[in-house]
Amino acid sequence: MAKVKSKWICQNCGYETAGYLGKCPECGSWGSFAEEVQTSLKPQAITPQGFLNDAKPSLLSDIKIGEEVRISTNISEFDRILGGGLVEGSLVLIAGDPGIGKSTILLQTSGELCKNNKKVLYVSAEESASQVKLRAERLDINSNSLYIYPQINMESIRCEIDALNPDIVVVDSIQAIYSGTITSSAGSVSQIRECCNILMQIAKNKNITIIVIGHVTKDGSIAGPKVLEHMVDTVIYFEGDKYKSYRILRAMKNRFGNTSEVGIFEMGSKGLSCVTNPNELFLNERSQGSIPGTAIVVTNEGTRPLLVEIQALVGTTPYPTPRRVTNGVDTSRLLQILAVLEKRIGLNLSKQDVYVNVMGGIEVDEPSADLGIALAVATCARDVVVDSQTVIIGEIGLSGEIHPVQNIEKRLNEAVLSGFKKAIIPYANRVENDKIEIIRVKRLIDAISACVSGQ
Q1: 19 to 10, 138, 160, 197, 375: CA distances (angstroms)
Q2: How far apart are CA 134 and CA 359, in angstroms?
Q3: Alpha-carbon distances of 308 from 387, 397, 436, rounded to whole Å
Q4: Which partner for 81 in 102, 263, 358, 409 could form a disulfide, CB atoms 3.0-4.6 Å apart?
Q5: What crossing angle do the helices spanning 444-453 and 370-381 adopt, rounded to 10°?
Q6: Is 0.90 topped by the overall pTM?
Q7: R_g (Cα) of the chain, nearest Å
Q8: C-alpha angle with apex 336: 307 to 308, nearest 5 degrees?
Q9: Do residues 222 and 216 lie in contact, with contact meaning Cβ atoms separated by under 8 Å?
Q10: Per-residue confidence (pLDDT) for residue 260, from 0 to 100
């Protein structure tokens, strides 16, 4: 007879313990332990059928690849972050905040794939078939090869996949699916791990592309065990500002393409549409004329250069300790830049509040934006302006030197296409472009001098 035992598992990181703990020693979260009852079955002999398949080792030169390795989604921004399209037999995980548009984009993708004569099975674990139909009508999706299957049982889903043999499977969402082999409730660490493992076996064994929607916790990480991200082939985060209409898809892991690639969409009444010119989106709110404390930087998101406006505000603080507030920029990065400005330039900000904001709500974490942030703060503190037709590129070292950045040619070409006339870049980046005036600087003081002399 099977022996029944229970253990406590942290629902954030998957840490296991024999008894309840208030605080997880692995991730530090409080009240995250849940009891899960498991049945220990008698071990069985391992047979070849227990593995994914009974294939034998093959020489790399003898392995044949099919003609259609990738499947285009007909959505250019989605194809960009996937590396050119969905890879057959891959397992893709898409995560994002509630209401950000995960189900919308996958239903749109399903409709586009059906136009390519692909058979798609959309497993809806959180909505009924009629509710999915209502959303499909709003998105103008009508296909004879798109199957809607409202189901939460993993074994039933597996049987339906075997019977239908689709090309693409969409699971919405993995946290709502449960397997009868696990006694814990849906959404637990054990259930997510087991269901994802079954889906991975189906994808690899039957060469079916499976896209899975995942929930995120309040701190923005994917709910469930960290092993979930290791099991899948591609991890995509769906980001966006709830006060704005655009959305950003960001590839954090991709075995078949570039990581940190981004795709930009705009949410409308007919669903998500691709933004073909993201620089126009991020610069459409650019300050008219020249205002102290603004600078345009060219950041690199994956293989795509983006122009964004950095705004800084420096003012006398009424508090004993000055405030450092950032939006779209890492606070620790700002503190480092302020320290360099004070030590190497002599700009005293110890009694002033400093606010830094990235227009458009995008997150800028690339070091090439350092010089733009520093010039925005310095010009606001000294009440001078940076020419609105100038872009700024460069990473700042602790001694005030300007370090070179990668893909400088692509950044400058993007600035030219957006109509900019001048660029301040690191001295070590030796590049020529006759369509834009280039000012190469070695140190931070040189960049500030170049801005002031251009008044």
Answers
A1: 11, 50, 39, 27, 55
A2: 35
A3: 15, 22, 18
A4: 263
A5: 60
A6: no
A7: 26
A8: 10
A9: yes
A10: 74
pLDDT value, residue 246: 82
Please name the amino acid found at residue 234: T
The bridge status of strand 16-17 relative to strand 86-87 is unpaired
Contact indicator for 389, 294 with CB cutoff of 8 Å:
no
Annotate 23-37 with DSSP letters as a single string.
B-TTT--BS-EEEEE
Which of 188, 156, 159, 158 lies closest to 174 in space, CA to CA?
A: 188
More confident residue, 277 or 80: 80
Buried/exposed 376-388: b ≥16 CB within 10 Å, e otherwise: bbbbbbeebbbbb
Question: What is the SS3 assignment for 344?
Answer: helix
DSSP one-letter string for 148-169: EEE--BHHHHHHHHHHH--SEE
Which amino acid is residue 55, in one-letter code? A
Spatial distance between the Cα atoms of 241 and 252, rounded to a whole number of angstroms:
19
Give the pLDDT confidence of 302-355 residue by residue, as tens digits. 778 999 999 999 999 888 899 999 999 999 999 999 999 999 999 999 899 999
pLDDT band at residue 50 under the 50/70/90 scheme: very low
**Neighbouring residues of 250: CB distance < 8 A, sequence distance ≥ 6:** 81, 236, 237, 239, 260, 261, 262, 301
Distance separating the N- and C-terminal Cα atoms of the chain: 85
At residue 51, does pLDDT exceed 70? no
Token digits of residue 250 = 């960001």
Give the C-alpha separation, 34 to 6, whole Å.
Answer: 10
Q: Are strands 390-392 and 422-426 parallel, antiparallel or unpaired?
A: parallel
